[in-house]
Amino acid sequence: MPALKIGDKAPDFSLPDQTGTVRSLKDFKGKKLVLYFYPKDNTSGCTKEACAFQENLGVLRKKGVEVVGVSADSVRSHEKFAGKYNLQFPLLSDENKEMIKAYNVWKKRRMYGKEYMGIERTTYVIDESGRIAHIFPKVMVNGHVEEVSQVLDEN
Fold first, then answer.
1. What is the 3-class SS of the chain, one letter each residue?
2. Phi and psi for 127 in degrees, rounded to 5?
3. Number of structural domains, the chain?
4. Catalytic annotation on 51?
5. Is 8 a domain residue?
6. CATH code: domain of residue 62
7. Is 65 in contact with 34 (CB distance < 8 Å)?
8. Which range marks the domain in which residue 147 is found?
9. Is the pTM here over 0.85, yes or no?
10. For residues 56 and 95, what is the distance between their CA atoms, to the nearest angstrom?
11. pLDDT tens digits, residue range 8-25?
């Protein structure tokens, strides 16, 4: 897959969230969308990131922004994760990794000296017309939501 760039049309998707509701890119037309990809439910960094988005959800929504998380975890895993942390935004289940690959976040990773394929923590800001407005590659969780909020204020 060629790398996505700012200004590109965001790849469409149609995936179930933690409630089983199928969500598509067109559902968010007319709103800014923060689409964040994360490796795994109930891991420390992913939990911290999800909770930070939840804590700032009211402020983001006042700016006309919706937040959606995406991982390869199952709908059931997302349901438990969202319930445990009272997450009030969709978590999309991409078990086939079609959306994950379309957004170029399925990468070779390395941990404890071992290489494996996995999701590289990445956030896309998609504008009201469905185009990519900003990309945050290789996200560091601490301070990330504040970075996203700042970019949203500038656009």
1. CCCCCCCCECCCCEEECCCCCEEEHHHHCCCEEEEEECCCCCCHHHHHHHHHHHHCHHHHHHCCEEEEEEECCCHHHHHHHHHHHCCCCCEEECCCCHHHHHCCCEEEEEECCEEEEEECCEEEEECCCCEEEEEECCCCCCCHHHHHHHHHHHC
2. -80, 180
3. 1
4. no
5. no
6. 3.40.30.10
7. yes
8. 28-154
9. yes
10. 27
11. 999 999 999 999 999 999
* 7 lies in some domain: no
Cα–Cα distance measured from residue 133 to residue 89, given in angstroms and rounded to the nearest whole number: 21
114 within domain boundaries: yes
Average pLDDT over the chain, rounded to an integer: 93
Name the token pair of 155. Answer: 């656009």
* HSE-up of residue 61 (Cα within 13 Å, Cβ side): 10
Is 20 domain-assigned? no
Q: How confident is the model at residue 109 (pLDDT cuts 50, 70, 90)?
A: confident
Contact call for residues 154 and 127 (beta carbons, < 8 A): no
Q: Is the dihedral of CA 131, 133, 137, 143 positive or negative?
A: negative
Catalytic option among 46, 87, 92, 100? 46
pLDDT digits (tens, 9 = 90+) for 24-64: 999 999 999 999 999 999 998 899 999 999 999 999 999 89
